[in-house]
Amino acid sequence: MSTAPKAAGIKAAMAVARDIADAKLDPADLTAEFVADARSLFGAVVGPHDPLWPLQLDVARQVLGLGGVPADELAEWLTVARRRETGDEETTSTTDPESLTRP
Q: Residue 3: pLDDT band by 50, 70, 90 thresholds?
C-alpha cells in the first residue's frame, strides 16, 4: 500500500475521532448504521444460489456452536427440515417456516 492511501485513512480516522470528541458524532449512531447496512447486505437469506450462502451457513454454524438458538426452537426447525426432506405436504403446509423466524 502506498503512503497516500495510508495518510488518507489516518486523516479520515482522526476526523471521526475529532467528531466523536466534539460530540458531533455518536458512536451508537455509527453502530446502528453499521447494523442496518449489514442486515441489508447479509441479513436476507434467500438460499443456496445466493453468493452469500456459504458465509451465511458459516455464521449459522457459529451461532449454533455458541448456543445462540434455544433447544426448543432448534427442535421446531428440525421438524420443519424433516418434513421438507420427506416431502410431507400435509404436515409441511401446517408449519410455516417464516412463523419460526426470530428477529
A: confident
